[in-house]
Amino acid sequence: MSRVPLPYNQKVLELFRNPKNLGRMEDATVSAVAGNPMCGDMITFYLKIDDEEVIRKASFESYGCAANIATSSILTEMIKNKTLKQAWNVSWKKIVEEIGGLPSIKFHCGILAVGALRRAIRKYYEEKGYTPKWLPKELTFEEKQALEEEELAERLAKRMDGQQ
Of 39, 78, 156, 164, which is least packed with CB atoms within 10 Å of its CB? Predict the structure, then answer.
C-alpha cells in the first residue's frame, strides 16, 4: 500500500523543519500534556508566566507529524506576551489560518495544540487555588480532545495490570 504525501504549504513545512520554541523549559511556571489516540500525536506545552499573568515564554515538545509540530510552533509564537485570558481565546481555526491552512484531515493538530495550552492555563489556576470569572467551569471541546490520550493510556495500563 502506498501513501500519497499530504499537501502541506511552505509555511507548515518551514515550521516543521525549523520549529520555533521547541524544547523543554526547565524554569516553566506550568506545563501540560495533550495527545490524540487516533493519530498518536503528543504535545507537552511549557509556559513561563509572570506576576501579571502574562506569558513571557512558551515552548513545546512534540511527538507527532509535520502539522502537529507546525501548529504547536506557531501557537507558542502567538501567545508570547499575551495575558492568560488572551491566550485562552486563541482558537484552533486561528492557528490553522496563521499557518496558511492545513489539509482537513490534519485539523485535529490545531485542536490538540489549543487543548494543551488550555490544559496548562487551567492547571496554572488550579495550582494558584483560584479560578478567574472568564475561565469556563466545564472543559472545552479542545481540552476534552487533549485528554483522550491520557484516558486511553490509563485504561490500557489497568488492563495490563489485570493480566499480570
Answer: 164
How far apart CA 68 and CA 116 sit, in angstroms, is 12
Distances (CA, A) of 145 to 13, 35, 44, 54, 159: 25, 8, 14, 25, 22
Task: Tell me the whole-structure pTM to 2 decimals.
Answer: 0.86
Between CA 118 and CA 115 the distance in angstroms is: 5
- The rounded average pLDDT for each run of 10 residues, N- to C-terminus, in the chain (164 residues) is 72 96 97 78 94 98 92 98 98 96 91 94 97 95 78 64 62
Pair 22, 71: CB distance under 8 Å: no
Domains and CATH numbers, the chain: 10-163 (3.90.1010.10)
**80 contacts 59 by C-beta, under 8 angstroms:** no
